[in-house]
Each structure stands twice: as C-alpha cells, then as structure tokens.
Write a structure and sequence with these properties.
The complex is a heterodimer of chains A (510) and B (247).
Chain A lengths: L1 E9 L8 E8 L4 E5 L6 H9 L1 H4 L4 E8 L2 E2 L5 H4 L3 E4 L3 H4 L5 H11 L4 H14 L15 H13 L5 E5 L7 H17 L2 E5 L12 E6 L2 E7 L10 H4 L5 H8 L13 E13 L9 E10 L2 E6 L5 H8 L7 E6 L3 E4 L12 H6 L6 H10 L15 H14 L4 E5 L7 H12 L4 E5 L3 H4 L4 E6 L2 E7 H12 L6 H8 L15 H5 L1
Parallel strand pairs in A: 3-8, 3-9, 6-7, 7-8, 13-17, 13-18, 15-16, 16-17
Antiparallel strand pairs in A: 1-2, 1-4, 4-5, 9-10, 11-12, 11-14, 18-19
Chain B lengths: L12 H4 L2 H16 L4 H19 L3 H10 L1 H14 L4 E4 L2 E4 H27 L2 H10 L4 H30 L6 H27 L19 H22 L1
Antiparallel strand pairs in B: 1-2
The chains are: A alpha/beta (510), B mainly alpha (247).
Chain lengths: 510, 247
C-alpha cells in the first residue's frame, strides 16, 4: 500500500537528518506499532506518510513515498484525505468544530458528498465510536477519551483505507485509554492499514502485526509481532519500556516494586479543611468538601479521571486560587508545573527560564542545567526545544524556585523512557514534598502515598500499594482489564492500569 | 475566566431572528458608522445600535462595558494621536499641544468602534458560530474565509484557558503585574497558539478542507420575516440619515 524508498528528510534550519535513508513497505491488513525515543523520527515519518512533510513545514526531502503507486509528494494533503486519515497527539488542536455532530460531518462535507450519504456515514461513525446521542454536545464538554474517540469517528466517517495515529493516548487517563483501545479495535475492522506511534506497547500488543523501532531518524528494528518476546533484552537499548505483560510471561513473575518507605510526616506542610471551589462561569462546585493533609518530604500520587478536580485542587494548594468555602493552612511554599509546559515559559532562553524568580547562584544553575541534561541548550529559546526537553526545563525551573511542595501535572505525558528516567531520578533526590498528578504507572510506582479523586471529592487516601486493591474491591474483579487480572492472579502489583471493561457514557463524561 | 463574546443559550428577540438578517444588520450598522465622522452623529448612531443590541439581544450593560474596556487603551491612543496631529485651537500640556478638533475626531472614531462592538456582540451572543459562518457564506463570502470566523469563536475559550494558565505560572514566580507582565503573558500565549493554529490548519487539510471550491453543508439556514423587517427599517433610517447629512 505504502512504500518508502530511501527517504531522508531534514527540517528547515537544522543540520541533522530527522529521517535518514528509510526503506519501508506497508501492506494491507497490517497493524504497525512505531516505537522509539522522543525525537527519534516517529512523528516526522507519520507526517511524511500524510504528505504534511515537506509541503507544510519546508525542509529538504530526498527519496520517494508512494501510496498505491502514486507519489505522495505530488499530491495535495487534502487529496490524500479521502484515503488516509491521521489522529494527532493533542485532540484539542484537531477538533475544529463546536459540536460532536458538526465535527464528524466535517470531513464528508469537505469531500462534497450528498447530505443523505453524509448523514448515514456520520451516524455509522458515531455508533462505531459509542458516541450516539452526543451529536449536539459541545466538544468542550468531552473528556480526553471521548475527544480521541471523536477524532477517530471524524476520520472513520470519511471511510479511509489507512489510519495513522500519533501517540493519541498521551494525555488520557486509564479509562480514556481503554475507551481509545476499544475504538481502535473497532477501527481495525474497517481500515486496511493502521500505523500507530506510541511509547506504551501494552495496550496495543494484541492488535499489532509488526513493530518498527526508530531512533536518530533511522529504523533500528523491524520485527513481526510474534517475534517481539524474543527482543525483550533489546528494549532498554531502544529506549522503550518493556511491555509488562511480556515481562510477566517471559520471567514467570516479577518481583513487585517495593513502594518507598513513607519518609514524610503528615499534617505539617499543608492542611486542607473541607474546601469547596466553583469557577465563576460554572453552576456547580468542582471541589466538594475536600479535606486532606500533606506532610513534609512526602511523595504522593494524585490520581483520578479527567475532570475529577485534580488540577483545581493543585492550583488551590499552591495558592493560585482561593477556596470558595473551607480553609487551607499552608506552612510552606508550593510550585506547580503545568501540563502543557510552553504555557509557563516567560523568558527568551533556557538559562533565563531557570534563573528567573529563583535565588540560585551561577554554579547551582549550571548544576541544575547539567542534571536535567539541558546545558547544551542554555542559550536556546524554550519554545525551540523538543516536547521532552520542554518538560525537563519546566521541572528544572520549578525546582529552582526551591519550593516546599512541588506539584507536577502529568510530568511524563508523551515523554520517552530516557526523559522519564531523568525526571524521576531528579525528583527522587528533591528534598521537599512532591505531588504527582498522573496517570502513568511508572510515576505512581515512585510514590508512597496515593490520593484518588472522583467528582470533586477524595475517594481514596492511603498507601500507594493499597490503592489498586481498594479500587478493585470497589469496582469488582470482572470490571478490570486482562492485564490487571493476570497481575492480580499472580499476586503482582506494579501500578498496572486497572481498566473497567465497560463504562457508560454518562459515567465517563460526568 | 473572564466574559467571552460567544453564543449563549437564552431567550431574546435576537435569538429568534435568523443569522442571515442579523449578519446583514451588523454590516449595515458598520457601514452606517463608517460614513460618519462628526461626534454628535456618531454618538447618535452608536447609541441607537447599542440600544437595539441591549434591548433586542438582552446584553447586560456590564458585559458590554467589559468588552469596551478592553479596547479603551486603543481609543485613548487614537484621541491623543488625532489631538496631536490636527491643527486648530486646543490645550497645551508642556511641550505637547492637543487640538480640540483632533480630539473630537479621535473620540468619534473610538465611539464608532464601540457602536460596531455593540452590533457584533448582539450577533455573536445570540447566534451559533456555525450559523454565523453559514450566513457569511450565504452573503457571498468564501467558505474558507467564513470558517476563520468560526474557528476564532471555537478557540476563544481555549485561548482564555491558556492565558489563565500562563498568568498562573507568572504569579508563581511572583512577577508584579504591569505592562511587562501583560506583554510576557500575551507573547507566551501567542507563541503557543501559533503552534496550535499550525496543527489545526494541518488537521483541517488532512480532512480535505479546501479541496474543492464549494463544500456540502448538512445544516441549512433560511431568512425569517422579522429579521427582514429589522434590516429594512434600519436601511431606511440609515439612508434617510445619510441623505439628510449630505444633501
């Protein structure tokens, strides 16, 4: 279907190749997982398949990409749109309409199909992605998982032969992820080829027919899915997380990660008493009577579904908002890093970004840059860094403020194994308390205490190692994923996502 | 989050009007104000437009003032600019001389903007963005251009949320509010939004936007009689007023 012949590409004003001598063939019926570290070339390759590179970005491309024996370079992106569809990492930027119905009909309307056909295809796509009844809903009211399902529905309504997915799960909670996996399973029945870029192989292994690993713009490995278990030892070299399910099967059992000893003392740093919070434009409270204490030097995971009130609580804890009702007594200073780091950058260079507002000396700044592997970018604009580097800079800047409580909003979203390791290692050595708002089991495993929020309230507050057992008891065994069941059966707990098999739309959106 | 001039589900006379005549009415009001440059007439027409907007669209005066305040700095600059560069009698502040005629013209131009803002609010608060887009297309605008207006309304809440996030980040660094604070905040958000605009444009093209000269629309809009009446009455008054001024 697709063939790439000696494809090389360099971004404008860059000296290194983003893609280097890529030779690949994609056949009908394949489900290809594209893995590899940040900056390895995955997204560039996907954009090249769609014809977005170099036509929209510029730069120099060599070689040829053929789709059904036609050169992609000679076609307009919109011409390819009827046959190939792409879902990007951030649903916010690709959903261009205001209601679910308008969004799904958008593609077929552009293709000038007649109204009856559009109506039929829109209805089918909504049914397929379990969004029936959502037609008039505002896209702004959807959860992360629903937005990604909507993006898929909008593409499927155009009846594409090829589906390209660029890390569509980066900002999703566990429920959003399972919802997306279900949607992709459905999409697989209707598309001839699916190419998916991801850092997490676990949720998609059962669908994959092939794994391609990319780094430095080159193909490092191209193996059939059935061969993946034989390559477990190579995963770390490739900069990819070993799929937990394979690790379990291969080694029989994994020693459960020992949660770090609880080194904190509760109740000293911040004390939250029965707080409520309501945004000016909202009709109901986002936080409904939260009471919780945070001690000095604690490591806490704050989990819960999109929209459960985590980010609002974080803003209240660091003093950016005042509770509508209730009281927060704080004996220390909190600093929050944002989920989208670029929104927090306010200076022209990486070094200034760290220095600004901090009391650190020159040597300490240099050391911080070094520890976060940012020294070589010291003079560069924060906006020119890669996503992983921006995330590291945001955390380094927050640490430079010398906070007593560091609140990290999704510190590893869309970040590869190496960057995650750097971030986790630096946070480990930080002397203050850390509150992670996260869906990433790797981060959860590095905490001692877990707080779970649901509908504006705290539903669990205890040892991290107890969290999932408690949730299993609440949800019931038959509502969790196969991976989690296997882990439970073997007595293993590694922060494996617990996945309810079926959730009603009402439950998900609430 | 601050007030955003986007569609609000409410009951008002403007809500019941069709988008085509509402858009035409706003265009008429804009043209009318464009032809006026003397202060009393601009005050008269702007007040008329504002009154229709407040009564017809049930816009709260406080909300209108909030929007107007955001363009007030520009208005002051305009008054000063016209005052400095127009000749005639005026007042002197040190070495700067401001002419009365220039300041009157500046004030008239500013009030013209306030009138147009009132009309624009009456349209945007009472009409679904999709309908504004469809009305623009029906009035002869290219769908590619009309979609830009639609996208602006779609992304306004997202931009507001991003701006809030950035200001939170600055508040954490204990940066004092001032001109520099606003400039930094706006620059950071503009850079972020530009990246998003790029991604959005690509996302639209990957779904065949712009492939053909025309596109199908599932939704149809039609003209209502009460809207025609509003446009007709406005047009008659406008023509009479302009003829009275010119002849």
């Amino acid at each position: 279907m697709y063939s790439l012949k000696s494809v090389s590409y360099r971004y404008p004003e860059q000296t290194t190749q983003a893609l280097s001598e890529i030779n690949l063939f994609f056949e009908e019926g394949e489900f290809v997982i594209l893995a590899g570290p940040n900056g390895g070339g995955k997204s560039t390759l996907l954009r090249a398949l769609m014809g977005v590179i170099p036509s929209h970005v510029g730069g120099a491309m060599k070689g040829e990409i053929l789709f059904r024996n036609k050169s992609v370079g000679r076609m307009r992106v919109s011409e390819l749109a009827g046959s190939v569809g792409i879902v990007f990492q951030d649903p916010e930027t690709q959903i261009t309409n205001l209601t679910v119905g308008e969004e799904v009909a958008f593609g077929p309307e552009n293709l000038c199909w007649d109204c009856a056909t559009i109506q039929k295809l829109t209805t089918e796509a909504l049914v397929l992605m379990e969004l029936t009844g959502f037609e008039q809903r505002s896209v702004l009211s959807l959860s992360g998982g629903q937005k990604q399902r909507l993006s898929l529905a909008a593409l499927l309504a155009m009846k594409p032969e090829v589906l390209i997915l660029d890390e569509p799960m980066a900002h999703l909670d566990v429920w959003g992820l399972v919802s997306l996996v279900g949607a992709i399973e459905e999409a697989k029945k209707h598309c001839k080829l699916i190419v998916l870029a991801t850092h997490f192989l676990d949720p998609f292994l059962h669908l994959a027919t092939r794994l391609i690993v990319m780094d430095h713009g080159m193909v490092q490995a191209d193996i059939a899915a059935s061969e993946i278990p034989n390559y477990i030892e190579s995963f770390e070299n490739w900069g990819i997380q070993v799929p937990q399910i394979l690790e379990m099967k291969k080694r029989g059992a994994i020693a459960p990660i020992q949660s770090p000893q609880n080194r904190g003392t509760q109740g000293d740093l911040i004390s939250v008493k029965d707080i409520h919070y309501r945004y000016a434009h909202d009709e109901k409270d986002v936080l409904t009577g939260v009471s919780i204490d945070f001690g000095w030097n604690e490591r806490i995971a704050l989990a819960g579904r999109n929209g459960s009130g985590k980010s609002t609580l974080a803003r209240l804890l660091v003093g950016l908002r005042k509770p509508t009702r209730g009281r927060i007594v704080s004996c220390g200073r909190g600093v929050l890093t944002l989920q989208y780091p670029t929104l927090g950058f306010i200076t022209a260079s990486v070094q200034e970004e760290i220095v600004f507002g901090s009391r650190l000396g020159t040597h300490e700044v240099a050391s911080l840059l070094d520890r976060f592997d940012l020294s070589r970018y010291a003079g560069k604009s924060p906006f020119q860094l890669s996503a992983g580097e921006q995330r590291r800079l945001a955390i380094a800047s927050a640490l430079a403020q010398e906070p007593d409580l560091l609140v990290l909003d999704e510190p590893t979203a869309g970040v590869d194994l190496r960057n995650t390791q750097i971030i986790l290692s630096e946070i480990k050595s930080f002397a203050g308390s850390v509150l992670h708002i996260t869906h990433d089991p790797r981060v959860v495993a590095n905490t001692e205490r877990a707080v779970v929020m649901e509908r504006g309230g705290v539903v669990f507050d205890g040892m991290q190692s107890e969290m999932e057992k408690t949730i299993v008891q609440r949800l019931g065994y038959d509502r969790i994923s196969a991976v989690a069941k296997l882990a439970i059966d073997q007595g293993l707990w590694r922060g494996i996502p617990l996945v309810p098999d079926q959730l009603s739309d009402e439950e998900e959106s609430s | 989050m601050s007030f955003q001039p986007v569609y609000q589900e409410k009951r008002s006379w403007f809500h019941s009007l069709d988008p085509i005549t509402k858009t035409t009415w706003v265009l008429l009001a804009t043209i009318w104000l464009y032809f006026l440059s003397d202060l009393p007439n601009v005050v008269l027409v702007s007040t008329l437009v504002l009154t229709v907007a407040i009564l017809g669209a049930r816009i709260k005066l406080t909300r209108y003032v909030k929007v107007v305040v955001s363009v007030l700095a520009g208005s002051m600059m305009l008054i000063l600019y016209q005052g400095i560069f127009r000749s005639g009698p005026g007042i002197v502040f040190g070495s700067v001389r401001l002419s009365f005629e220039g300041m009157r013209l500046g004030a008239a131009l500013s009030l013209r903007t306030f009138g147009i803002v009132a009309g624009g609010l009456a349209l945007s608060l009472t009409t679904r963005p999709k309908h504004i887009m469809l009305a623009m297309i029906r009035l002869g605008c290219s769908y590619r251009v009309a979609y830009v207006v639609y996208l602006a309304l779609r992304f306004l809440p997202v931009c507001a949320a991003d701006l809030q996030a950035n200001q939170d980040a600055m508040a954490q660094r204990e940066i004092k509010k001032g001109v520099g604070w606003y400039v930094k905040s706006v620059v950071a958000v503009v850079i972020t939004e530009l990246g998003k605009v790029d991604d959005t444009a690509i996302a639209m093209e990957t779904r065949a936007f712009g492939l053909y000269e025309f596109r199908t629309s599932l939704e149809k809009i039609s003209i209502a009689r009460s809207g025609v009446l509003l446009v007709a009455v406005t047009a008659v008054i406008m023509v009479a007023h302009l003829l009275w001024l010119w002849v």
